[in-house]
Amino acid sequence: MRDAHKKEDTRQRLIEAGATILHRQGYNGTGIQEVLAACGVPKGSFYHFFKSKEDFVLAVVDHYATRMGKRVLELFSDVTLSPLARLSLFFDQMIERVNDVDNPFSSCGCPIGNLVQEMAPLNAAFRHRLDEVLDGLERAMATVLRQAQAVGEIGPRHDADELARFIVASWHGAILRMKAAGGPEPLVRARAFLLGMLNASATGRHKT
User: Fold this and answer.
1) Which spans in 100-159 are helix H?
2) Residue range 140-190, pLDDT digits in tens
3) Cβ atoms 71, 39 nearer than 8 A
4) Residue 31 region, left (φ>0) first, then alpha (ψ -120 to 50), else beta?
5) Do the Cβ atoms of 203 and 148 come closer than 8 Å?
6) Considering only CA atoms, which of 175, 43, 180 is closest in space to residue 114?
7) pLDDT tens digits, residue range 49-93?
8) Of 67, 62, 63, 20, nearest in space to 39 by CA
9) Which domains does the chain carry?
10) Where is 33: in which H helix or E strand?
């Protein structure tokens, strides 16, 4: 039992080290030796857990997805906030991370989005897995949008699933633009536009 826990701990250390380096440097800029050095694991142990670099980075994608899913679930299930307020906070938290001068990844963008740009056109396994991750975010957002429609915060005109896809695509586009701009202004503009659009769709006005 102790050996099983030790092995799982080693595997998790590799994934967490890889997640940090990959977010900063991307797939092609991340070397296995660098990951091993970061967590003090011998090379033989790496290939005990992962068949290849691709297999390892797919495990890192699962790690990103789990971490993002937990954060989104906690936010979107917070019934102390109205549905539209939860969406507003979703945008605000990203902007806060970009504005955090102590965050070493403030200008690195979304790790999932980064991998989509780098790997999805080149590798089917990455494309399918990354698409699944974004599908999960869209489904979670669609649920909140339906809740907002049910209480009249936003109008019923648009299908919640299609609206969620549009919002996620727009937000990731704003993240890409933020990296080019070198600051959070594109995210601030996207937040204002998307929330304004949702507010305008309602019969009455609702402040966020």
Assistant:
1) 111-119, 124-150
2) 999 999 999 999 999 998 999 999 999 999 999 999 999 899 889 999 999
3) no
4) beta
5) no
6) 175
7) 999 999 999 999 999 999 999 999 999 999 999 999 999 999 999
8) 20
9) 1-50 (1.10.10.60), 52-201 (1.10.357.10)
10) helix 32-39
Give per-residue pLDDT as tens, 85-103. 999 999 999 899 888 767 7
Q: Which pair of structure tokens corresponds to residue 126?
A: 């990455």
Check if the beta carbon of residue 83 is closer than 8 Å to that of residue 145. Answer: yes
Name the packing angle between helices 111-119 and 53-76 (round to 10°). 140
Q: Give yes or no for a contact between 65 and 56, defined as CB atoms under 8 angstroms apart.
A: no
d(CA 88, CA 170): 14
- Given a cut of 80, whether residue 194 has pLDDT beyond it is yes
User: For residue 58, what are its two tokens?
Assistant: 């797919």
Q: How does DSSP assign 148-161, residue by residue?
A: HHHTTSS-SSS-HH
Rounded Cα distance between 135 and 117, Å, is 16
pTM over 0.85: yes
**What pLDDT score does 9 carry?**
87
DSSP state letter for 34? H
